[in-house]
Write a structure and sequence with these properties.
33 strands; 16-stranded mixed sheet; 36% strand; Jelly Rolls
Length: 570
């Protein structure tokens, strides 16, 4: 029954996508997924429909990322002087440090199991994986990939001269050049660039401020989600449910069960008072709630107007359970050509007059939703199934490409010389707890795992300019001081191998759970038909495909379709 409950919402998404695209359905759109940008701190940007390496594509467009942005397959999220968090349907989370670029290479829903394959193009990120049976999660960065098959937390760093993964909780498996290496809590694997056969397993380095920040975010989100589940009987709701517990209260309403309303709003508050509008070619216009709680109420369930209370959000109903929508509102057009939007009632029937029309509607102009209008008669308004792209102005600002930051893995141990001792201008900043460039007298470096970094100008990052940087000290456990030498690094991003294909053991597990399955990972590309595309390498350009198919070689297009998926509490 569990797999059936997750399959039904996925089928519903097909009809959503077909309507948004005017009948031109995506190939294999039943595999669609959408996840959530659940935290934005500082400078964060994103790109959509990325094919290949976004850091090497000077023509790639970037936009400013905002809270509660829907992320689908083919998107890239990048931080400069900021941090970000992404929350998945099953409660998994990704937390991005500063100067980090993460590509959502594959977000699909295969036979009730969520497939997630990511590429860490640059920087540091922490991954909290919370899979259900049949889910698959992998991250590729540098010269290897990491697979997590059970509940686990790990950190990956991808720098110019190498990359590593540190297991904080649980277990993972690393894959490099056909070799699998299991890692458990407290272990790390480090690999120099271009040396896929020379990975070293060692004891994990001490945690830093980013690790502590990420652990706090994971703990608070998990606790809030568990607390919020008491108000909802449907285990399919997970992403964003914890925010409702933190930022609002629940009211029992006869005939509808528990309904939710945010704290601090007056009787005249309407659902579309705070947020921005965003257009995506895959699903049309979406409303991005500007408050921390503004994800779930605008993409699932519906709204009820209760006299004496005001607008309340209801998590379920015949059209709401498990189904992601761009907005929990119904577009309507008057006989005079006026466009309005009506908060969707949980019992609305698609194409029929919305039940909440009697409570009034909100006029839509090119600048967004304005004031509330009184509906004189239901006959004056007709449902607008496909609002045009020109209806509103996309309210997300354009942004420049993320800064290429040249960084090196620097492992210093007691008795070894630090980079400062090698005569460079790299010094250890005790406040920021990292190495920085300085013309001052170098300070004595501390011990532990650190990173030196150097921002690269867009002019040099876009070409083949090379720069000499101090050589990293010897690896942990080496004897004597390292040789004083320099190593050249091309400032363009390193080529990243294609993410691995989903292993047969995962696909067999999905079949055992009651889903229909016709073969292993090799059968995926053929099962979707010729409409699904594939690519051979994540470092090159991917084939244009509407849903981002996969081949036995592990390639995937970045084009992806959109949709929703179920989840469950942490």
């Amino acid at each position: 029954m569990k797999s059936l409950s997750r399959a039904v919402p996925t089928i519903l998404v097909v009809f959503l996508l077909a309507s948004c695209l005017g009948g031109s359905a995506f190939a294999d759109s039943s595999h669609a997924r959408i996840v959530r940008l659940s935290l934005v701190q500082g400078d964060v940007r994103f790109a959509r429909d990325v094919k290949g390496d976004p850091l090497s594509d000077s023509q790639q467009g970037w936009e400013t990322a905002v809270l509660n942005l829907p992320i689908r397959q083919g998107y890239v999220v990048a931080t400069d002087s900021g941090r970000a968090e992404v929350e998945f349907e099953n409660g998994s989370m990704v937390l991005l440090a500063e100067n980090t670029v993460l590509q959502f290479y594959d977000l699909s829903n295969e036979d009730g199991g969520l497939t997630t394959r990511l590429i860490l193009r640059q920087g540091s990120a922490e991954f909290y994986v919370n899979p259900e049976r049949g889910d698959y999660f992998s991250v590729t960065g540098g010269d290897f990939s990491v697979q997590a098959e059970s509940k686990t937390t790990f950190r990956m760093n991808n720098f110019d001269d190498g990359s590593n993964v540190v297991v904080l909780h649980g277990r993972v498996t690393t894959l490099a050049n056909g070799k699998n290496t299991p890692l458990a809590k407290g272990q790390q694997l480090s690999m120099q660039a271009g040396e896929a056969d020379a990975g070293e397993v060692a004891r994990a380095s001490e945690s830093d401020e980013f690790d502590q920040w990420a652990a706090g975010r994971i703990s608070s989100e998990s606790s809030a989600t568990v607390a919020a589940q008491q108000y909802n009987s449907d285990p399919g709701y997970i992403s964003g449910f914890g925010d409702l517990y933190t930022y609002g209260g629940w009211f029992p309403i006869a005939g509808y069960g528990n309904c939710w309303r945010p704290y601090g709003v007056g009787f005249g508050w309407s659902p579309f008072d705070n947020g921005s509008w965003y257009y995506d070619s895959a699903f049309g216009w979406a409303f991005l709630g500007g408050a921390p709680w503004g994800w779930l109420p605008y993409h699932y369930g519906g709204w009820i107007f209760q006299p004496g209370v005001g607008w309340l959000w209801n998590p379920g109903g015949s059209v709401g359970v498990g189904r992601w929508r761009p907005i929990t509102g119904t577009w309507v057009r008057s006989s005079m050509g006026t466009i309005g939007i009506v908060p969707t009632h949980p019992l609305d029937v698609r194409g029929k007059t919305p039940m909440n029309l009697s409570q009034g509607l909100f006029e839509v102009t090119s600048r967004g939703v304005t004031g509330q209008l009184a509906a004189e008669s239901d006959a004056h308004w007709k449902v607008e199934n496909k609002p045009s792209r020109d209806l509103l102005q996309n309210q997300l600002a354009e942004a420049g490409a993320p800064t290429r930051v040249q960084r090196m893995m620097v492992a210093t141990t007691a008795g070894e010389k630090s980079p400062a001792a090698l005569g460079s201008t790299i010094v250890y900043d005790r406040t920021e707890r990292r190495f920085v460039n300085s013309n001052a007298v170098p300070a004595e470096a501390g011990t532990g795992s650190t990173t030196q970094r150097m921002k690269v100008s867009p002019e040099s990052a876009g070409g083949n300019t090379e720069a000499r940087v101090p050589a990293a000290p010897g690896r942990e456990g080496s004897k004597g001081a390292p040789a004083v030498a320099t190593r050249q690094f091309v400032l363009n991003a390193r080529t990243v191998p294609a993410p691995p294909s989903v292993p047969r053991s995962v696909t067999n597990e999905r079949a055992a759970s009651g889903s229909v399955w016709t073969g292993g990972s090799e059968a995926r590309g053929a099962s979707a038909g010729a409409a699904r595309g594939s690519s051979g390498s994540a470092g090159g350009s991917a084939a244009a495909a509407s849903s981002g198919g996969r081949s036995a070689g592990g390639g995937a297009s970045s084009g992806g379709s959109s949709g929703g998926g179920g989840g469950r509490p942490h």
